[in-house]
TrEMBL record:
Cross-referenced CDD domains: GT1_Gtf-like (cd03784)
Pfam families assigned: EryCIII-like_C (PF06722), EryCIII-like_N (PF21036)
Species: Nocardiopsis alba
Name of protein: Activator-dependent family glycosyltransferase
This protein's record includes keyword Membrane: no
Family that this chain belongs to: Belongs to the glycosyltransferase 28 family.
Family matches, as Gene3D superfamilies: Glycogen Phosphorylase B
Start and end residues of each Erythromycin biosynthesis protein CIII-like C-terminal domain: 275-417
Protein keywords: Antibiotic biosynthesis, Glycosyltransferase, Transferase
NCBIfam families for this protein: glycosyl_450act
Erythromycin biosynthesis protein CIII-like N-terminal domain: residues covered: 22-259
UniProt key word Glycosyltransferase: yes
PANTHER family according to UniProt: STEROL 3-BETA-GLUCOSYLTRANSFERASE, STEROL 3-BETA-GLUCOSYLTRANSFERASE UGT80A2
Amino acid sequence: MRVLVTTAAEKPHFLGLVPLAWALRSAGHEVVVASQPELAGAVSAAGLPFAPVGRDHGFWRMMRAYSLLGVLEKDTPPFGMADAPEHEVTWDYLIEGYRRVVPHWWRMVNDSMADDLVDLCRTWKPDLVVWGSVSFAGAVAARACGAAHVRYIWGADIFARMRGLFLERSAERPVHSREDPLGEWLSGLAARYGVEFDEELVVGQATIDQVPDVLRIPVDDRLGVRYLGMRFVPYNGRAVVPDWLRERPEGRRLCLTLGTSATDRFGGYTLPLGEVLEALGQVDAEVVATVPLKARQDLGTVPSNVRLVDYVPLHALAATSTATINHGGWGSVLTGLAAGLPQAILASWFDNPMLARRLSALGAALDVPVARATPELLADSARRVLEDEELGRGARRIAAGIRSRPAPGELTVELERLAERRGSVRAGAATGDPRPSER
């Protein structure tokens, strides 16, 4: 079958899709990745065919502007309360959040590629479209060409969770006072291509979920979300594993990674990196810190136990480490969990604080909010994750749950069935036969 994989041009989001894309190719299927032109380098480096669609979005230019103005909030409506008890999530909170994210995030990353994406689907005619969590244009394009489509989520399903609560709160209000920014935008987008809006465009015909069961959050049944569980397989991009990383060190090793978005998108870290490294110099462990060359210019001399590296494959570093300090991104955290590593998480925004809270409650990580993360506190946290056996046992329990899930190659069979069912319906519609045709 033909499979189109599409996501907005965000490298971390694409990297998470690569193991599945290659599993599909290895199973003999034709796979093409479609996104804005900015993603071409990352896709080519992964060895996958790339189809540029539309123009690059301006989301991060807007985010940097808001950051400079100091208006970014730690609580990100409507997702900052994604793991809160249902009764605490109000209509006012939800509607304010949708008023923000729809025009200033989802429209920006979808509208700029929708026309070209629909054209690509109508001409290339994929059997299946796999679309990233908020790449709703992929669902619209699939519906426009009659393909099956599945949503791929990078972490806990905060999007379906809050959508379900939104629909519930909306139903409780008088009809004249209801408002649905997502439905209104997506209805208009879909109508341009002769597609009617329904909630399937929001959650897909199925959802590929790589999150361990203990980290999942409840989702309203009214959405009809069908989850396809898949094992998390780390992929960090094209890389060379250096000699020193091919075996475990004699002593303890601490991995320090604060994410790529801090430097790639915002131009720097939220913490004084030099002071952090100086404090970690007092910890009895080798500290491997992934710091891009452009972020090292003002560091000067670092402690003797600190190894600065521009880039190493995180899964290889995790495999030889004792513990990790990271920013709370799902890719970094799941990579550490897959290796059974206890973590100190410096979560600052979006769903990262939620992930840190949940892992802390499970006894697998320390939740260290950025607002109070002094270098001294980080050094104390480093000692705890290196030495606390309970944290280690908690992380290894979650690692076992990750390993128990089906590998991406096993999931391809289910995706083939989904595409075949959709293809049968499409063939019946084309011939005027209401019954599914047999292949």
